[in-house]
Amino acid sequence: MSDSIEKVSVIISKGSLDGIYPGLIMANGARAEGIETNLFFTFFGLDAINRKYHEHIKLATVGNPGLHIATWAAGLPGMASLMTRYMEKNIAALDIPSIPEFIEMISDTGAGLFACKASVDLFHLTKADLIDQAQEIITVGEFYEKAAGGQIIFT
User: Which of 52, 11, 32 is nearest to 105 (CA)?
Assistant: First the structure.
């Protein structure tokens, strides 16, 4: 029996910079290692593949303990935009692509990108609302079929 990972399925459920990038980094790393990879976008994670929002993902500032700033300061007008620009600048300095570029790059490596049917229905979306790289809208059961025999990573 091999200890190597042969397949991963990454669930992205948050629609913020700090909720989307970890899953994309994990998926990209898996593909770089030759690991079969599927991404499952659910709930607010759908923003990463929603035509309307995927180029405008913000950093969550209010209630984000990782920022180490007071909640009252995090809620000030313009703070989310300011912190988002700051993080995007730092991300670009590390030569990490923007979310739309990252998703396209991961898709081009053969990873599967899937939208959660329950979430799509919840937010009254259709396949036309999703970016071209989103291959299908699937149920949780269909996701489990695709994930069978592999590791599931929840970000």
Answer: 32
Give the residue among 17, 16, 19, 5 at the shortest CA–CA distance from 154.
Answer: 19
Tell the residue number behind the tokens 């299908």, with chain if given.
136
What is the set of domains in the chain, with CATH numbers? 8-154 (3.40.1260.10)
Q: How far apart are CA 89 and CA 72, in angstroms?
A: 24
Whole-number Å distance between alpha carbons of 153 and 150: 10
- How many Cβ atoms from other residues are within 10 Å of residue 49's Cβ? 26
Dist CA 9 CA 6 (whole Å) = 11
Query: Which of 54, 17, 13, 39 has its CA nearest to residue 111?
Result: 39
Hey, is 96 helix, strand or coil?
Answer: coil
Q: What is the pLDDT of residue 41?
A: 98
Is the pLDDT assigned to residue 2 strictly greater than 70?
Answer: no
d(CA 16, CA 53): 11
Q: What is the pLDDT of residues 73-96, one digit of tens each?
A: 999 999 999 999 999 999 999 999
